[in-house]
Description:
Elements: H1 4-21, E1 25-31, E2 49-55, E3 65-69, E4 72-80, H2 87-92, H3 112-120, H4 127-151, H5 160-172, H6 175-180, H7 190-200, H8 204-214, H9 221-237, H10 257-269, H11 277-291, H12 296-306, H13 311-338
Parallel strand pairs: 2-4
Antiparallel strand pairs: 1-2, 3-4
Amino acid sequence: MTTAGGARRTATRHVARAVAADPRVVGAFLTGSVLAAADGDVLSPASDVDVVLVVDAGEPPRGPGKSRVDGVLLDVSCLRAADLADVDAVRRTHWLAPSFAGREPLLDPAGRLARVRAAVAPTFAEPADVLARCEDVLRRSGSRLQAVIGAGGPGGACTAERVLSWVFPASLLTQVPLVAALEPPTVRRRYAAAGAVLRRCGHADLAEQLLDDLGCADVGAGDVREALAVVREGLQRVRTPVPREFAFAADLEPDAHPVVLDGTAELLDAGLHREAVFWLVVTAARLQQVSGGPEGWFRDLLAGLTGIGGPEDVLSRARRSLRTADRVGGVGAALVRGR
C-alpha cells in the first residue's frame, strides 16, 4: 500500500539521484493529480506520480518516462529553467500553475522555484488568473484542432498519427472545468474527472457532449472490455526496450502497463467505461505506431469505440470539438464566477 506522502518522499529521493547524475538539473517539482492528494491518501496501483526536472542549460533531455522506483510508478519529464523565467506566463499556464500554488518543490537548492511559487500562489485562485488558465486550455486546443482541419482532406487511411493529432486537443477541453474548479489537470482520467466536476455543478449535459464528441457516448461496457483485451495483447507483443526515438516509448514498456490495464479496469468497475475510451484509443494508436504493421486491428478498435471509420470522420470530429469549445469556455467562466 502506497500513500501519496510516501510517493512524494520516494520522488524526492529519486530527484536527488538525478541531480547527482546530471549537474544540469537545478530543481524539481510535482505536477498532475498527486498535487491534490493528502499525505495519507492511498494511491491506486494504476496511478503514477508526475515529476518535472528543471534543467539549467541547453535543451532538456527527453525524460526517462515511467519507471517503478521503490514500488512507486514515477513519470519523469524535463523542463528548461528558462521556461519558468516569465512568472506571469506560469500563472496563466493551466498545467504549470497548480504545481506552484501549494506544495513546495521537491528540489530547489538555489531558491529559483520558490520565487516562482511566491509569484503564483497568492493569486492562484483569483478569477482573473483562473480565467486566464481556462483561456490557455482553449487556445491550445483550438490551435491544434485547426491544424488537424488544415492538414488534410478525406483521402488516405485513418492512420494512428492522424487520430492522435485529433484526440489529444479534443480531449484537452476536459481540462477547462478542472481549471475552473481549481483541480489539478490530469491525463488518463480526464473525462472522468471533468465529468465529476460538471455533474456536481449542474452541467451533466456538457459532460455527455464531451463524450459524444469523442464518439463513445453510447459505447457499451462489453465493447470497452473487448478493446482492453486487444490492447493487453498488443502490449504483451511489444519488443522492449522500445526505441527511445519514439516520443512515448516508456508508456508502452512493462512498468507502465498497469496504468492502462489496471487503470482501465478500475474505470470499468466504477461504471465509467465510456470515460476509459480516451486512453485506450491513445494506447492503441501508440502500439500501432511502434509496430508499423497493418492497421486493420487498430481501425477496427477505433471504429468500435468511437465510430470513426475514416479520415473524414476525424475532420468532422475536430470541427465538432471546435464548436463545443465555445460552450466549454462559457461553462468554465460561469464556474469561476460562481465559486
